[in-house]
Protein backbone atom coordinates (compact mmCIF):
# COMPACT_ATOMS: atom_id res chain seq x y z
CA UNK A 1 0.00 0.00 0.00
CA UNK A 2 1.51 3.33 -1.02
CA UNK A 3 2.01 6.16 1.43
CA UNK A 4 -0.49 8.97 0.91
CA UNK A 5 0.20 12.69 0.80
CA UNK A 6 -1.38 14.79 3.53
CA UNK A 7 -3.92 16.41 1.21
CA UNK A 8 -4.99 13.12 -0.32
CA UNK A 9 -5.14 11.47 3.09
CA UNK A 10 -7.37 14.18 4.48
CA UNK A 11 -9.70 14.02 1.50
CA UNK A 12 -10.42 10.29 1.66
CA UNK A 13 -12.27 10.26 4.97
CA UNK A 14 -13.77 13.66 4.22
CA UNK A 15 -15.36 12.27 1.06
CA UNK A 16 -16.62 9.27 2.98
CA UNK A 17 -18.10 11.54 5.63
CA UNK A 18 -20.24 13.56 3.26
CA UNK A 19 -21.57 10.51 1.44
CA UNK A 20 -23.22 9.00 4.52
CA UNK A 21 -26.88 8.06 4.07
CA UNK A 22 -29.14 10.85 5.32
CA UNK A 23 -31.82 8.58 6.75
CA UNK A 24 -31.24 6.45 9.82
CA UNK A 25 -31.19 2.74 9.17
CA UNK A 26 -33.61 0.37 10.93
CA UNK A 27 -32.14 -2.06 13.47
CA UNK A 28 -30.17 -4.93 12.02
CA UNK A 29 -28.15 -6.80 14.63
CA UNK A 30 -26.98 -9.34 12.08
CA UNK A 31 -24.99 -6.71 10.20
CA UNK A 32 -21.21 -6.52 10.18
CA UNK A 33 -19.05 -4.25 12.32
CA UNK A 34 -15.51 -2.90 12.38
CA UNK A 35 -12.69 -3.93 14.69
CA UNK A 36 -10.06 -1.27 14.00
CA UNK A 37 -6.37 -2.03 14.43
CA UNK A 38 -4.01 0.81 15.36
CA UNK A 39 -0.28 0.59 15.90
CA UNK A 40 1.86 3.71 16.40
CA UNK A 41 0.29 7.07 17.21
CA UNK A 42 3.15 9.29 16.19
CA UNK A 43 4.79 11.21 13.36
CA UNK A 44 5.04 11.07 10.40
CA UNK A 45 1.95 9.38 8.95
CA UNK A 46 3.02 6.13 7.32
CA UNK A 47 2.12 2.47 6.92
CA UNK A 48 1.96 1.56 10.61
CA UNK A 49 1.71 5.07 12.07
CA UNK A 50 -1.30 7.34 12.54
CA UNK A 51 -0.60 10.92 13.56
CA UNK A 52 -2.42 12.25 16.64
CA UNK A 53 -4.33 14.66 14.39
CA UNK A 54 -5.45 11.91 12.05
CA UNK A 55 -6.40 9.68 14.95
CA UNK A 56 -8.52 12.52 16.32
CA UNK A 57 -10.11 12.89 12.87
CA UNK A 58 -10.86 9.17 12.79
CA UNK A 59 -12.78 9.52 16.06
CA UNK A 60 -14.66 12.57 14.79
CA UNK A 61 -15.60 10.73 11.58
CA UNK A 62 -16.76 7.63 13.42
CA UNK A 63 -18.84 9.68 15.84
CA UNK A 64 -20.46 11.73 13.09
CA UNK A 65 -21.28 8.57 11.15
CA UNK A 66 -23.15 6.98 14.04
CA UNK A 67 -20.47 4.65 15.42
CA UNK A 68 -20.10 4.20 19.16
CA UNK A 69 -17.34 2.48 21.13
CA UNK A 70 -17.94 -1.05 22.34
CA UNK A 71 -15.78 -3.31 24.48
CA UNK A 72 -14.59 -6.40 22.66
CA UNK A 73 -15.41 -8.71 25.56
CA UNK A 74 -18.96 -7.29 25.72
CA UNK A 75 -19.51 -8.27 22.11
CA UNK A 76 -18.08 -11.73 22.77
CA UNK A 77 -20.65 -12.10 25.55
CA UNK A 78 -23.45 -10.92 23.27
CA UNK A 79 -23.88 -7.63 25.13
CA UNK A 80 -24.49 -4.62 22.87
CA UNK A 81 -24.94 -1.45 24.86
CA UNK A 82 -24.67 1.23 22.17
CA UNK A 83 -27.73 3.46 21.62
CA UNK A 84 -30.49 2.60 19.17
CA UNK A 85 -29.62 3.50 15.60
CA UNK A 86 -25.87 3.44 16.16
CA UNK A 87 -23.21 0.86 15.29
CA UNK A 88 -20.64 -0.62 17.68
CA UNK A 89 -16.99 -0.15 16.72
CA UNK A 90 -14.05 -1.75 18.52
CA UNK A 91 -10.69 0.01 18.86
CA UNK A 92 -7.57 -2.12 19.28
CA UNK A 93 -3.97 -0.96 19.75
CA UNK A 94 -1.11 -3.38 19.11
CA UNK A 95 2.49 -3.40 20.41
CA UNK A 96 2.36 -0.90 23.34
CA UNK A 97 4.48 1.68 21.49
CA UNK A 98 5.35 4.97 23.28
CA UNK A 99 2.92 7.16 21.33
CA UNK A 100 -0.05 5.09 22.44
CA UNK A 101 0.33 6.15 26.09
CA UNK A 102 2.82 8.69 27.39
CA UNK A 103 3.11 10.73 30.57
CA UNK A 104 4.72 14.17 30.51
CA UNK A 105 5.55 16.78 33.13
CA UNK A 106 3.36 19.87 32.90
CA UNK A 107 4.09 22.63 35.44
CA UNK A 108 5.52 20.10 37.85
CA UNK A 109 2.57 17.72 37.48
CA UNK A 110 2.59 14.36 35.75
CA UNK A 111 -0.10 14.33 33.07
CA UNK A 112 -1.11 12.26 30.09
CA UNK A 113 0.43 13.66 26.93
CA UNK A 114 -2.47 15.15 24.93
CA UNK A 115 -0.69 14.04 21.75
CA UNK A 116 -0.57 10.35 22.66
CA UNK A 117 -3.31 7.91 21.72
CA UNK A 118 -4.83 7.70 25.21
CA UNK A 119 -4.65 11.49 25.53
CA UNK A 120 -6.47 12.03 22.24
CA UNK A 121 -9.07 9.41 23.06
CA UNK A 122 -9.71 10.67 26.59
CA UNK A 123 -10.08 14.26 25.38
CA UNK A 124 -12.58 13.21 22.72
CA UNK A 125 -14.61 11.20 25.21
CA UNK A 126 -14.78 14.19 27.54
CA UNK A 127 -16.22 16.24 24.68
CA UNK A 128 -18.52 13.47 23.43
CA UNK A 129 -19.36 11.29 26.45
CA UNK A 130 -22.06 9.49 24.46
CA UNK A 131 -19.29 8.09 22.22
CA UNK A 132 -18.58 5.55 24.96
CA UNK A 133 -15.26 4.51 26.47
CA UNK A 134 -13.72 1.27 25.25
CA UNK A 135 -10.55 -0.03 23.61
CA UNK A 136 -8.24 -3.01 23.94
CA UNK A 137 -4.48 -2.53 24.28
CA UNK A 138 -2.44 -5.53 23.16
CA UNK A 139 0.74 -5.00 25.10
CA UNK A 140 4.24 -6.48 24.99
CA UNK A 141 5.45 -6.74 28.61
CA UNK A 142 8.80 -8.35 27.80
CA UNK A 143 9.71 -6.63 24.55
CA UNK A 144 12.82 -4.58 23.94
CA UNK A 145 12.61 -0.80 23.80
CA UNK A 146 10.59 1.04 22.65
CA UNK A 147 7.67 -1.44 22.80
CA UNK A 148 7.93 -2.70 26.36
CA UNK A 149 4.76 -1.41 27.99
CA UNK A 150 4.80 2.01 26.31
CA UNK A 151 8.53 2.63 26.99
CA UNK A 152 8.32 4.44 30.33
CA UNK A 153 9.48 1.80 32.84
CA UNK A 154 8.89 4.07 35.83
CA UNK A 155 5.22 4.41 34.87
CA UNK A 156 4.39 0.88 33.67
CA UNK A 157 2.15 0.03 36.59
CA UNK A 158 0.50 3.43 36.65
CA UNK A 159 -0.44 3.11 32.97
CA UNK A 160 -1.82 -0.40 33.21
CA UNK A 161 -3.85 0.47 36.28
CA UNK A 162 -5.17 3.62 34.59
CA UNK A 163 -6.37 1.60 31.60
CA UNK A 164 -8.15 -0.97 33.74
CA UNK A 165 -9.68 1.61 36.07
CA UNK A 166 -11.03 3.60 33.12
CA UNK A 167 -12.71 0.57 31.60
CA UNK A 168 -10.23 -0.18 28.86
CA UNK A 169 -9.08 -3.75 28.29
CA UNK A 170 -5.59 -5.22 28.19
CA UNK A 171 -5.05 -8.08 25.77
CA UNK A 172 -2.37 -10.67 25.13
CA UNK A 173 0.08 -10.07 22.29
CA UNK A 174 2.65 -12.55 23.64
CA UNK A 175 5.58 -11.62 25.85
CA UNK A 176 7.72 -10.03 23.14
CA UNK A 177 5.79 -10.29 19.83
CA UNK A 178 6.71 -13.90 19.14
CA UNK A 179 5.76 -15.44 15.81
CA UNK A 180 3.77 -18.32 17.28
CA UNK A 181 3.97 -20.36 14.08
CA UNK A 182 7.72 -20.81 14.54
CA UNK A 183 7.71 -22.39 17.99
CA UNK A 184 6.95 -25.64 19.72
CA UNK A 185 4.10 -26.00 22.21
CA UNK A 186 6.14 -25.25 25.33
CA UNK A 187 7.41 -21.94 23.96
CA UNK A 188 3.97 -20.86 22.71
CA UNK A 189 2.41 -21.54 26.09
CA UNK A 190 5.24 -19.78 27.93
CA UNK A 191 4.88 -16.68 25.75
CA UNK A 192 1.17 -16.44 26.55
CA UNK A 193 1.33 -17.31 30.23
CA UNK A 194 4.30 -15.07 31.01
CA UNK A 195 2.65 -12.08 29.35
CA UNK A 196 -0.19 -12.46 31.82
CA UNK A 197 2.24 -12.83 34.72
CA UNK A 198 3.95 -9.55 33.82
CA UNK A 199 0.66 -7.67 33.63
CA UNK A 200 -0.47 -9.13 36.93
CA UNK A 201 2.62 -7.76 38.62
CA UNK A 202 1.03 -4.35 38.21
CA UNK A 203 -2.68 -5.29 38.15
CA UNK A 204 -3.09 -8.33 40.41
CA UNK A 205 -5.58 -10.97 39.27
CA UNK A 206 -6.20 -9.21 35.94
CA UNK A 207 -6.87 -11.80 33.23
CA UNK A 208 -5.96 -11.30 29.60
CA UNK A 209 -9.12 -12.51 27.87
CA UNK A 210 -8.28 -12.01 24.19
CA UNK A 211 -5.23 -12.61 22.03
CA UNK A 212 -4.04 -10.61 19.01
CA UNK A 213 -1.70 -12.73 16.93
CA UNK A 214 1.73 -11.21 16.28
CA UNK A 215 2.23 -11.07 12.50
CA UNK A 216 -1.21 -12.66 12.20
CA UNK A 217 0.36 -16.12 12.52
CA UNK A 218 -1.38 -18.96 14.36
CA UNK A 219 0.54 -21.64 16.24
CA UNK A 220 0.58 -25.06 14.62
CA UNK A 221 -2.18 -26.13 16.99
CA UNK A 222 -4.72 -23.42 17.79
CA UNK A 223 -5.60 -25.06 21.09
CA UNK A 224 -2.18 -24.01 22.41
CA UNK A 225 -3.32 -20.39 22.04
CA UNK A 226 -6.74 -20.86 23.62
CA UNK A 227 -5.91 -22.12 27.09
CA UNK A 228 -3.24 -23.82 29.08
CA UNK A 229 -0.75 -23.61 31.88
CA UNK A 230 2.92 -22.73 31.85
CA UNK A 231 5.30 -22.06 34.73
CA UNK A 232 2.45 -22.25 37.20
CA UNK A 233 0.19 -19.75 35.43
CA UNK A 234 -3.05 -20.59 33.66
CA UNK A 235 -4.30 -18.55 30.71
CA UNK A 236 -7.57 -18.68 28.79
CA UNK A 237 -8.50 -16.63 25.72
CA UNK A 238 -12.07 -16.13 24.58
CA UNK A 239 -11.12 -14.78 21.16
CA UNK A 240 -8.19 -14.64 18.76
CA UNK A 241 -7.80 -11.57 16.56
CA UNK A 242 -6.18 -11.66 13.15
CA UNK A 243 -4.10 -8.88 11.66
CA UNK A 244 -6.46 -8.14 8.76
CA UNK A 245 -9.53 -9.56 7.04
CA UNK A 246 -12.07 -6.74 6.80
CA UNK A 247 -15.29 -6.19 8.72
CA UNK A 248 -16.30 -8.77 11.34
CA UNK A 249 -19.56 -10.71 11.40
CA UNK A 250 -22.15 -9.86 14.03
CA UNK A 251 -21.61 -11.74 17.31
CA UNK A 252 -25.14 -13.07 16.77
CA UNK A 253 -24.38 -14.48 13.33
CA UNK A 254 -23.74 -18.12 12.49
CA UNK A 255 -20.60 -16.97 10.66
CA UNK A 256 -19.14 -15.39 13.82
CA UNK A 257 -15.96 -17.26 14.78
CA UNK A 258 -14.26 -15.92 17.91
CA UNK A 259 -11.12 -17.87 17.03
CA UNK A 260 -10.74 -15.97 13.75
CA UNK A 261 -11.85 -12.40 14.27
CA UNK A 262 -10.88 -10.17 11.34
CA UNK A 263 -9.70 -6.61 11.81
CA UNK A 264 -9.43 -3.51 9.67
CA UNK A 265 -6.03 -1.86 9.77
CA UNK A 266 -6.53 1.79 10.68
CA UNK A 267 -4.81 3.32 7.69
CA UNK A 268 -6.39 5.94 5.49
CA UNK A 269 -7.36 3.81 2.50
CA UNK A 270 -8.78 0.94 4.52
CA UNK A 271 -10.82 3.22 6.77
CA UNK A 272 -12.20 5.15 3.82
CA UNK A 273 -12.99 1.93 1.97
CA UNK A 274 -15.04 0.43 4.78
CA UNK A 275 -16.87 3.63 5.63
CA UNK A 276 -17.77 3.92 1.98
CA UNK A 277 -18.67 0.26 1.77
CA UNK A 278 -21.30 0.58 4.48
CA UNK A 279 -22.65 3.71 2.77
CA UNK A 280 -23.16 1.73 -0.42
CA UNK A 281 -24.41 -1.37 1.40
CA UNK A 282 -26.29 -0.06 4.47
CA UNK A 283 -28.18 -3.33 4.78
CA UNK A 284 -24.88 -5.00 5.74
CA UNK A 285 -24.09 -2.65 8.63
CA UNK A 286 -24.83 -3.66 12.20
CA UNK A 287 -27.41 -1.23 13.61
CA UNK A 288 -28.36 -1.50 17.26
CA UNK A 289 -31.92 -1.64 18.58
CA UNK A 290 -30.76 -0.06 21.84
CA UNK A 291 -31.85 -3.00 24.03
CA UNK A 292 -28.98 -5.27 25.18
CA UNK A 293 -31.44 -8.05 26.01
CA UNK A 294 -33.01 -8.17 22.55
CA UNK A 295 -31.61 -9.13 19.15
CA UNK A 296 -33.51 -7.40 16.35
CA UNK A 297 -33.06 -8.90 12.89
CA UNK A 298 -34.70 -8.60 9.47
CA UNK A 299 -37.17 -11.48 9.12
CA UNK A 300 -35.53 -12.58 5.88
CA UNK A 301 -32.23 -13.13 7.73
CA UNK A 302 -33.58 -15.09 10.69
CA UNK A 303 -31.90 -18.31 9.53
CA UNK A 304 -28.49 -16.62 9.86
CA UNK A 305 -28.76 -16.39 13.65
CA UNK A 306 -26.39 -18.42 15.81
CA UNK A 307 -27.83 -21.22 17.86
CA UNK A 308 -27.72 -21.06 20.72
CA UNK A 309 -27.45 -17.33 21.17
CA UNK A 310 -25.30 -15.92 23.99
CA UNK A 311 -27.16 -15.43 27.26
CA UNK A 312 -30.99 -15.57 27.31
CA UNK A 313 -31.50 -13.10 24.48
CA UNK A 314 -34.90 -12.54 22.95
CA UNK A 315 -35.17 -12.35 19.18
CA UNK A 316 -37.40 -9.78 17.49
CA UNK A 317 -38.00 -9.82 13.75
CA UNK A 318 -38.81 -6.75 11.73
Topology:
Blueprint: H1 6-18, E1 34-38, E2 40-41, E3 49-50, H2 52-64, E4 67-69, H3 72-76, E5 87-94, E6 103-106, E7 109-112, H4 117-127, E8 136-139, H5 156-165, E9 169-172, H6 185-202, E10 210-212, H7 222-226, E11 227-230, E12 233-236, E13 239-245, E14 261-265, H8 268-280, E15 294-297, E16 314-317
Parallel strand pairs: 1-5, 1-14, 2-3, 4-5, 5-8, 8-9, 10-13, 13-14, 15-16
Antiparallel strand pairs: 6-7, 11-12
Helix pairs in contact: 1-2, 1-8, 2-4
List keywords for this structure.
disordered N terminus; 16 strands; alpha/beta; 318 residues; 8-stranded parallel β-sheet
Describe this structure in words.
The protein is of the alpha/beta class and 318 residues long. It has one domain (6-18, 32-287): Glycoside hydrolase/deacetylase (TIM Barrel, Alpha-Beta Barrel). Helices cover 28% and strands 21% of the residues. The protein has 8 helices and 16 strands. The protein has helices spanning 6-18, 52-64, 72-76, 117-127, 156-165, 185-202, 222-226, 268-280, and strands at 34-38, 40-41, 49-50, 67-69, 87-94, 103-106, 109-112, 136-139, 169-172, 210-212, 227-230, 233-236, 239-245, 261-265, 294-297, 314-317. The strands form 5 sheets. Strands 1, 4, 5, 8, 9, 10, 13 and 14 form an 8-stranded parallel β-sheet that branches. Helix 1 (6-18) packs parallel to helix 2 (52-64), helix 1 (6-18) runs parallel beside helix 8 (268-280) and helix 2 (52-64) runs parallel beside helix 4 (117-127). It is globular.
